[in-house]
Amino acid sequence: MGDHDDLRKFITDLAVVHGRVVLSSGREADWYVDLRRVTLHHEAAPLIGRVMRDLTADWAYDAVGGLTLGADPVAAAMLHASAGTGRAVDAFVVRKEGKAHGLQRRIEGPDVSGRRVLAVEDTSTTGGSVLTAVEALREAGAEVVGVAVIVDRGAGDTVRAAGLPYRAAYTLADLGLVA
Questions:
Q1: What is the pTM of this model?
Q2: Is residue 113 part of an annotated ligand binding site?
Q3: Where does orotate bind (predicted)?
Q4: Which site from 88, 124, 129, 177 is most exposed, i.e. has the minimal number of CB atoms within 10 Å?
């Protein structure tokens, strides 16, 4: 099996939780994809980095990140996967709000101003979190080249309607789930 198949197995075995849950969007579902069980797993995290890099290999960007918390381990995995490839990328974290102390930065990590960046998320239902990150990145002077998520729960149309290319490593159908 390759990285894509191996990661799908980690997701279906560890991250898909059955039972009634309320999503961050406010919607209710009979199952939940808890990707932190995979993005923070010692064997799965390197797979995430490679799968997401492969998914976006034809997009030119030099930094990757998104709204904390879901995007953080995805960006870190991609940062590590890019080391030694000749196409290294930096990672950044977008806070939900700017800090009221210190440097009062909303985007932590290397400066994104004037850089081509990729916005990522672990999973997205409405696109709200990743579009919040995109807005902050644009305000900081970054050029957002696209949005990539590990699992799409339905945000694709919303993100594309906002004028951004959108890719997902897996759809719900890929995981044997229905919306």
A1: 0.93
A2: no
A3: 125, 153
A4: 88
- Single-letter code of the amino acid located at 69: L
Structural domains in the chain, CATH included, are: 44-173 (3.40.50.2020)
Q: Is 123 annotated as a binding residue?
A: yes
Phi/psi for 127 (5° steps) reads: 90, -5
8 A C-beta contact, residue 90 and residue 63: yes
86 is in an annotated binding site: no
The reply to whether 124 sits in an annotated binding site is yes
Instruction: State yes or no: 56 annotated in a binding site.
Output: no
Q: Is 158 annotated as a binding residue?
A: no
Of 41, 55, 70, residue with least CA distance to 3: 55
pLDDT in tens, the chain (179 residues): 799 999 999 999 999 999 998 877 787 888 889 999 999 999 999 999 999 999 999 999 999 999 999 999 999 999 999 998 999 999 999 998 765 555 568 999 999 999 999 999 999 989 999 999 999 999 999 999 999 999 999 999 999 999 999 999 999 999 999 75
